Amino acid sequence: MDVSLLLGRLLRQLERSLPNRCLLCQQPLSQGQGLCDVCLSDHDPGDLCLGCTGPLPAPVPWRCGPCLARKRWRPLVTAFPYHSPPGYLTGAIKIHGQLALLPPLCDALAQRITDLWALGALPRPDLLVPVPMHPSKLPQRGFNHALLIANALGQRLSLPVAPELVRKVRRTRDQHGLSGAERRRNLVGCFEVVPGAARAQLALVDDVVTTGATFAALAASLRREGHGVSQYWALASAMSPARFS
Ligand SMILES: [Zn+2]
Ligand SMILES: [Zn+2]
Fold first, then answer.
1. CA dihedral defined by 60, 61, 63, 68, rounded to 10 degrees?
2. Cα 210 to middle of ligand 1, angstroms
3. Which tens digit of pLDDT belongs to each residue from 109-164?
4. Dihedral of the CA atoms 69, 73, 79, 82 (nearest 10)?
5. How many angstroms is it from 50 CA to the middle of ligand 2?
6. Ligand 1 centroid vs 159 CA: distance in angstroms?
7. Residue 84 — pLDDT band, cuts 50, 70, 90?
8. Per-domain residue ranges of the chain
9. Which listed CATH number (3.40.1350, 3.40.50, 3.90.320, 2.60.120) goes with 48-237?
10. Which of 68-77, 116-125, 180-189 has the lowest average pLDDT?
11. Phi then psi for 230, rounded to 5 degrees?
């Protein structure tokens, strides 16, 4: 077995055997995992624009001024800005296999979605579709983080998850450091949707949204097969306000 794989597994076992502490303030957790309630409420970003994820002074009308001026848009729901402590920790799910972060971060996003449903700001989708990972990456990472997040959200919101609906059929360059246009070129033709599946209204799920290029490419592939994509969900947003289109 690859040494880095073995080390990763040993580290995860070690973490599980240590006292359960908040990953931000290191205080012992009497219940739950990953983050304490105090850290979560201290870093609650309040209302966020459903167009660009920037801060909003009031929830209604759900979008900031520049986003309200856009004709074409799709609701993008995130729990935290990436440049905040809980948002920054989101990357540790994928990079370090820090799965203790899944429950508190998915709770926060599920709560935000539930609130938006109650306010009539967001339609309820039929199915959740996680951003797929190329199969060649699975042995190294051991899991698709977007699938874990979609499963956790599906459980909390009583929605089915359809990871088999779309596959990533071409490996792409690491998107880190690429511009929006480079990201879009990098993603051309990389998703393949299973033909003939019953058409549905979908919510696409990922860990972090940076430019929205991955969501847009995946949505375009799904729409070509007749599916509707009504919204995007991500735990954290690293977007600049009013940048998403
Ligand atoms: Zn804490
Ligand atoms: Zn906006």
1. -160
2. 26
3. 999 999 999 999 999 999 999 999 999 888 888 899 999 999 999 999 999 999 99
4. -80
5. 6
6. 30
7. very high
8. 48-237
9. 3.40.50
10. 180-189
11. -95, -15
Which two tokens mark 102?
Answer: 């899944």
Ligand 1 centroid vs 84 CA: distance in angstroms? 14
- Choice between 131 and 31, residue whose per-residue pLDDT is larger: 131
Q: What average pLDDT score do residues 196-214 get?
A: 93
- Interval between CA 54 and ligand 2 midpoint (Å): 6
Average pLDDT over the chain reads 89
Q: If you measure from the C-alpha of residue 146 to the centroid of ligand 1, how many angstroms do you get, rounded to a whole number?
A: 24
SS3 80: strand
Ligand that lies nearest to the alpha carbon of residue 23, given by its number in the listed order: 1
Interval between CA 29 and ligand 1 midpoint (Å): 8
How far is Cα 59 from Cα 64, in angstroms, rounded to an integer? 10
Expressed in angstroms and rounded, the spacing between residue 245 Cα and the centre of ligand 2 is 10
- 65 vs 15: CA distance, rounded Å: 45
Q: What is the number of the ligand closest to the CA of 240?
A: 2
Where are any strands of DSSP class E within 113-186? 127-130, 166-168
Q: How many angstroms does the Cα of residue 211 sit away from the middle of ligand 2?
A: 13
Q: What is the pLDDT of residue 227?
A: 95
Q: Which ligand is nearest to the CA of 36?
A: 1
Tokens of 204: 């696409």
User: What's the confidence (pLDDT) of residue 172?
Assistant: 81
Q: Are 215 and 232 in contact (CB under 8 A)?
A: yes
